[in-house]
Every structure is written in structure tokens, then in C-alpha cells.
């Protein structure tokens, strides 16, 4: 049936005009909407439609004030990045559409993913003999993908377990090979990193696995063990300290990280792998977990998390603009020192269980001497617009995650609040 051109035309309004009209479809408007906000456009509909009044009351305008979010992940993102994404959300550059609507095989998205990769390579100085993959399934999927790709069922592999995430990685690996814990900090409640000489590595192991930063326990490797296996392969889960400081990638066989702490929204998992380790996956390896297939297809074997990759790209750009990871590390050290000093100066009112030399720059767990005050601390902090300070359910207490995007002002505010809380409750 031929469709006659309709007299009805649908006005797609800019966010601000839609909000002013009290439209239900309006999304929150920021006062910082860029000057280049798109103009209203008018589309002629081909089919005649009846206009239906939306019976729902208009949505209240959302407050635009941002609070300090100390969550462990998903976590705070740089404001500059959020505003840039906002300015490009509706129409990306000359494409006439949002990044969310683009073909993942088109030239626009190709340029986005390629720029994200080259900026990440510049940030971490990734050598050319390493592949960079943008995958899905979170770091948890890598707990399986690593052994599936790097060893066969009869192969042994070594795990240093310094916290819950390393333990989960080890348990998953047991399904696919002969995984062994060569050191565990469990008896000391995961507050330490071993002296590397104390770790009895198996020379026949296919790799040595570490979790570079334990997000729940706040324990961070400050340098890395030399793998004593024949291949010399060290594998690291860097989910919660990825891009927080420079790393010598050439020391690792594989580095993997979920994006949602330091470099983007959840949904993107980054894998950096030495190319000669690709291509030996076990036969049962699902196609999505096979590094060879992902590398051969430039992470586009299936539809990737396009918008998340775009966001990661904006974060990488921002980190480069800040002067790269050396500068970022300086800022992170300053924030962490401020917070740890506050514990040490509190005369035991606040306590951090982690051994001082391996305290994380990213995730800072702490408790109160008077543990009965912890709920009050979290409640009062939230009133002061500092949220997500509750410790992980498995360990309790408090935890402040102070990733790259947490401004110094957030940590200063927390420290001032801690001093005031102590003065009132000591
Ligand atoms: N490893 C570490 C160190 C983590 O912090 C997390 C998540 N908090 C994971 C692995 C699991 O990541 P995902 O939720 O992306 O699977």
C-alpha cells in the first residue's frame, strides 16, 4: 500500500526546549550544556499517525549537582569526559547520529575504536608485539579466558592470592587446568603482599597470575614478581588500578581489566596480550573467549560494546591531556597520602588494616575503633554528599575508592569530615 506524505510533523526538540515544554521525554538538562547544542530539527513522517496525549505528569527536573562518589565500580568518571560525551551524545561530529546508533563496522566507529587503541598504546607505551583487545563479559570472564587460551587441561599454573579477586580467578582456573595457589594472604586477612623470594613457583607452570590491586582488601603490588616458569609468563588482573600509574607492559604476558573503575563504564573489558601467546586456545574455548578470533577481527567479531569503547576513548584522551600516567600517578599519590595520613594521625580512631608498604592508591579500606559508629559515619558522610563509603559486604567497615577521576577536593572533603566526626565522637 502506498503511503501518502503526512501533514503531521514531529518536532525533535533539543534537551533544553523539550524540558522547558515539560515534555515527559525530556532528559535532565545541565546548565553546562555546550554552546554547540544541536538545533531543533523537524522530520516529516511518511505515515499518518494520531497524536496521543501523554497522560503522565511531567518528570521533575533532575538536580545537576554532582556529589563525591567513592564507589568501587562502577565509579566516578572525569567530569570533562562526561560533558564531552554529553555534547556529542545526540549527534557525533558529522555523522548525523549518536555513537549508540552507528554501525560497528562503519568508518566513524572504526575511527573511534582505532583512536581509543592508539591512545591507550601511547598512555601505557604498549610495545608493538602486544595486541590490545576490547572485549565483553567483565574481568570475571577473563578468569576463564586466560587459562582457556594459555594452557591445556593437564598444564599447571600458579596463582598468588592476595585477596578475594585473586581467589576467584584461581577458582575459575581450576575448571580448565591444574591451578595451584603458591601463596595466599588469607590467614592474615589479605593485608599483605608476599616477599617474592618466599613464593615457591613451579618451573613447569604455564603462567604466574596476580591481581595487581585487590579492590576489596586494598592491597596493591608496588612491584611485580619475576615469573620463574619456563615461558616467563606473568598474568595480571589490573581491573582496579589500570591506567592509574605507568606500568612496564613488557613484564607481562597478559594484562586484563574491566573498564568500570578507572577508564570507562561497565561493559568493556580490556586485554593486552603478547602476540605470541595468541592462538593456542583449548578446543572447548567459546568463540567469544578465543583471543585469536578476537585479535584477527580487531575486537569486532561480533557487535562490541560500542558506546563503552567510545567512553574509554574519551578517558584515554583526557589522561593524555593531563600529561600521561606519570602525572596521573602523582595526583593519585597525593590523594592517597592525604587519606592514609588522616588514619595515622587519628590515634587509632580510624584504622587501616593493610600493611603500609602495600596500601592501595585506589581502594582504601578502613574501620572505626568504635565499630558501632560506622553506620553513623556512613550516614553522616552521605548527608555531606560523600557516598558509597560502605565497605564490601564480605569485609564490612568502610572503603573509599579514590580512582583517577576522584578530584583532590573529594579526598580533602572526606578528610575534613573524618576529623570533624572524630572530634564529635572520640
Ligand atoms: N577483578 C577485580 C580486581 C575487580 O575489582 C573486579 C570487580 N570489582 C573484578 C575482577 C570482576 O570484574 P567484573 O565485574 O568486570 O567481572
Automatic annotation (TrEMBL):
Keywords (A to Z) from UniProt: Amino-acid biosynthesis, Aminotransferase, Pyridoxal phosphate, Serine biosynthesis, Transferase
Reaction catalyzed: O-phospho-L-serine + 2-oxoglutarate = 3-phosphooxypyruvate + L-glutamate; 4-(phosphooxy)-L-threonine + 2-oxoglutarate = (R)-3-hydroxy-2-oxo-4-phosphooxybutanoate + L-glutamate
Domain Aminotransferase class V residue range list: 67-414
Keyword Endoplasmic reticulum among UniProt keywords: no
GO BP terms: L-serine biosynthetic process
A GO term for molecular function: O-phospho-L-serine:2-oxoglutarate aminotransferase activity
Associated pathway: Amino-acid biosynthesis; L-serine biosynthesis; L-serine from 3-phospho-D-glycerate: step 2/3
InterPro entries hit by this protein: Aminotrans_V_dom, Aminotrans_V_PyrdxlP_BS, Pser_aminoTfrase, PyrdxlP-dep_Trfase, PyrdxlP-dep_Trfase_major, PyrdxlP-dep_Trfase_small
E.C. number(s) listed in UniProt: 2.6.1.52
Origin: domain of life: Eukaryota
Amino-acid biosynthesis in keyword set: yes
Cofactor(s) this protein cannot do without: pyridoxal 5'-phosphate
Top-level enzyme category: transferase
Gene3D superfamilies per UniProt: Aspartate Aminotransferase, domain 1, Type I PLP-dependent aspartate aminotransferase-like (Major domain)
Family from the record: Belongs to the class-V pyridoxal-phosphate-dependent aminotransferase family. SerC subfamily.
Function text: Involved in the plastidial phosphorylated pathway of serine biosynthesis (PPSB). Catalyzes the reversible conversion of 3-phosphohydroxypyruvate to phosphoserine.
NCBIfam families: PRK05355.1, serC_1
UniProt name for this protein: Phosphoserine aminotransferase
Taxonomic lineage: Eukaryota, Viridiplantae, Streptophyta, Embryophyta, Tracheophyta
